[in-house]
Amino acid sequence: MLARRAAPRLWVTPAQQRWASSLPMNTLVLFVPQQEAWVVERMGRFHRILEPGLNFLIPLLDRIRYVQSLKEIVIDVPEQSAVSLDNVTLQIDGVLYLRILDPFKASYGVEDPEYAVTQLAQTTMRSELGKLTLDKVFRERESLNSNIVHSINQASDDWGIRCLRYEIKDIHVPPRVKESMQMQVEAERKKRATVLESEGTREAAINVAEGRKQAQILASEGEKAERINNANGEAQAVLLKAEAKSKAIRVLSEALSEQNGNAAASLTVAEQYVSAFSNLAKESNTILLPTNAGDMSSMVTQAMAIYSTLGKTSQKAAPEMLEEKTESPENQLPPPQ
């Protein structure tokens, strides 16, 4: 019977036993399980690594020295103390995920892989934490994990082990630092609340000012439109009054040119004169009366005389204007050539 070697601590966990309590015996015909690598020595020297499946060995000469698991392995990194860049002592632990890539290096490159990887992870973690302040440790957790994985892989290449991930589980700070952090968080929250309140007040004031501005603009536009409409209405009214007056004058001139037109005009003038004379006392206390105020016939005769004088003046002015137009050089035709 060949000598047996106890399984290293790396492959024995309370949840799952990666190695058997003793190494397999050389029975000439061996069946290697999947995701395992059996390291064989012949006469005390490395011979080969058995692949999963059926394998044959020479009794007494060949010996199974190591059994390596090729599955992903989880190692719990113990809690340790570390000092940050701003001299704050932290208690931090983590979980390390790794896998064996080269069974030969994992068997002959290091005596205790678990202890070596654990110590390397702890020293790397302390080194990386010393480069960061306390606030950055919490904010840059992902970058801290990636830096630790990179540092472990640089050192573990000679061991045939590949670190896949490193995750920080818990970070414990001293009670006084924790209290100060809590006070800082509360102050930050109060600051944000004050800033938000001031921004809300500012936005409200801006909205009120904008509303007043829009209201003034709309009111001025409405007043402008009202004035334009009033002006247009007044212009239309003036035009309509002028057209009505023009039509009335035209109708009056046509009526005067007819038979007995002068008599009708005389009657109308007399009626208006009498009506105006009767309204003098209603508008003012001071009244200027003619000497013959009681003689109504004389007043009518006087009004008709004024009307006749105006008619003769207009008849004389019309031929004179016609003569001036005919004598002007603008109206004369050029002499024939």
UniProtKB/TrEMBL annotation:
A Pfam cross-reference name:
Band_7_C
Major subcellular location class: mitochondrion
Q: Which Gene3D superfamilies match?
A: Band 7 domain (3.30.479.30)
Q: Does the keyword Transcription regulation apply?
A: no
- Coiled-coil annotation reads none
Alphabetical keyword list: Mitochondrion
Q: How does it sit in the membrane?
A: Lipid-anchor
SMART domains cross-referenced by the UniProt entry: PHB
Q: Name one GO cellular component term.
A: mitochondrial inner membrane
Region annotated Disordered, chain positions = 313-337
Designated name of the protein: Stomatin-like protein 2, mitochondrial
Per the UniProt record, the source organism is Sparus aurata
Lineage of the source organism? Eukaryota, Metazoa, Chordata, Craniata, Vertebrata
Q: Which gene name belongs to this protein?
A: STOML2
